[in-house]
Design goal:
410 residues; VC0802-like; Rossmann fold; 9-stranded mixed beta sheet; 6-stranded mixed beta sheet; 15 strands; binds adenosine-5'-triphosphate; binds magnesium ion
């Protein structure tokens, strides 16, 4: 194609954190990230996902809408930043013409900078020449000034063997590791502020999360279940396919109330939760439990009580928020988009039959003795059998047989 009539191919340029992806696991991390990007953008006009010189390119159908793509890619862990861009022939005229044609997509700017790089040195054109010539053309076309230290907008040009890429401002991604690159976990999801934040922190370190919510319906209303469903959908935005279990705990709580001393109730409820959640998550390969505990936040979250709860689990319990203040957690909930939902009123199951004087220094011996009044194993099996499974995402389209397999009680 002659110079001056550039054929532009729209794409999204995705940068990942190379430092975190070094070593033998690198190909696996990159494959996982590519797959996650493909899934996250399904149906949005992405033709092909390709790796090119230390970045990932999403080739777009002409006219693919940018806003929905931007929203989805901003939730893919492992993405450090991304930009809307175009591939063009690696000649100066083609680059300038392409940039000028698409300048309106960069939005309003009073100052700008051009950053040019050559990953392919054979081109008879230096990075400096590109920056100077393109800078002059943009200045003339837009009337904006050049500011290399703090520009309103940056135009990036990268010359690769396959052609030249240009793209505008880098949009920050969530960083972290791609979901699926660490072992899966089970998150105990209440309707509150903390546990969805804990879930997202684990996704950010590469774990896929199965969610388990306990409710006390019909002793309390259904509000907490509705919240858990909506939170699960937000979490799906970050990890794709999501499985949520809704487990009735009311009957078990009633038995605890009848047979055990009142100050131990909350810890005993929690011990049942971890046992049931562990069994449900194992169906999905989960190897650890996750809670939104933050040290000392409420009576059940003293070190002594965390020990007393942990004693009932066989898997490790990860608590990514343990050292955070409530305000810090709330700020993070705001950023991930769960805060507004979490503060809606509900009736959490832990509020059912709780005494005004919960034990804050639970001793293990006392807890175990109290629990021996109950048939723990059959109550746990009952909880597992009564769990309702809700699946969000691709799995909804799976065969009936697969659905059945996933919903069978163990
Ligand atoms: P959150 O804001 O997540 O509800 P919280 O401040 O209310 O936390 P607690 O109610 O003490 O704290 O719960 C501590 C952790 O125990 C929660 O973060 C969650 O992981 C788990 N948990 C509590 N209630 C439930 C529930 N109904 N279903 C599932 N997990 C729960
Ligand atoms: Mg709670």
């Amino acid at each position: 194609m002659p110079e001056g009539q550039p054929r532009l191919r729209p794409c999204v340029v995705v940068h990942y954190h190379e430092v975190g992806l070094k070593g033998r696991n690198r190909p696996f991390f990159l494959q996982t990230l590519e797959q996650n990007l493909r899934r996250a953008t399904a149906g949005l006009g992405v033709k092909r996902v390709e790796r090119a010189s230390g970045r990932i390119l999403l080739w777009l159908e002409p006219g693919a809408a940018w806003e929905p793509l931007r929203e989805r890619i901003a939730r893919v862990f492992g993405v450090v930043n991304f930009s809307r861009g175009y591939a063009v022939q690696p000649g100066l005229a083609a680059i300038i013409q392409g940039v000028l044609a698409h300048l309106p997509e960069a939005g309003a700017f009073a100052t700008f900078a051009v950053r040019a790089r050559r990953a392919f040195k054979d081109l008879p054109l230096s990075s400096r020449e590109i920056a100077v010539e393109l800078g002059a053309a943009v200045q003339q076309a837009s009337g904006a000034g050049v500011n290399l230290s703090a520009p309103d907008m940056t135009i990036y040009v990268e010359v690769l063997p396959q052609g030249a890429l240009f793209f505008f401002d880098k949009i920050r991604g969530p960083g972290g590791l791609p979901v699926g690159s660490s072992a899966p976990v089970t998150v105990l999801l209440s309707g509150g502020i903390d546990s969805p934040v804990a879930a997202c922190r684990m996704l950010k370190r590469g774990s896929r999360a199965t969610l388990v919510h306990f409710h006390s319906f019909p002793f309390l209303n259904r509000a907490s279940q509705e919240k858990a469903r909506e939170l699960a959908q937000i979490i799906r935005g970050y990890q794709g396919d999501t499985v949520l279990y809704l487990v009735p705990l009311g009957e078990i709580q009633r038995k605890v109330v009848v047979a055990c001393p009142a100050p131990y109730r909350v810890v005993l409820y929690r011990r049942f939760m971890v046992r049931i959640a562990e069994a449900l998550g194992e169906r999905h390969g989960a190897q650890a439990l996750v809670t939104g505990d933050s040290l000392g936040q409420v009576a059940s979250q003293t070190i002594e009580n965390l020990i007393a709860v942990e004693d009932a689990a066989t898997q490790i319990i990860l608590r990514p928020l343990i050292g955070m203040d409530k305000q810090e957690i709330a700020d993070e909930a705001e950023r991930i988009g769960t805060y507004a939902l979490s503060i809606q009123p509900d009736q959490d199951c832990c509020a059912l039959f709780v005494p005004s004087n919960p034990s804050i220094h639970t001793d293990l011996k006392g807890i175990r003795a109290a629990e021996s009044a109950l048939d723990v194993e059959s109550l746990v099996q009952q909880g597992i059998a009564e769990a309702e499974v809700v699946e969000y995402g691709q799995r909804e389209k799976h065969s009936a047989a697969e659905q059945k397999k996933n919903t069978l009680p163990v």
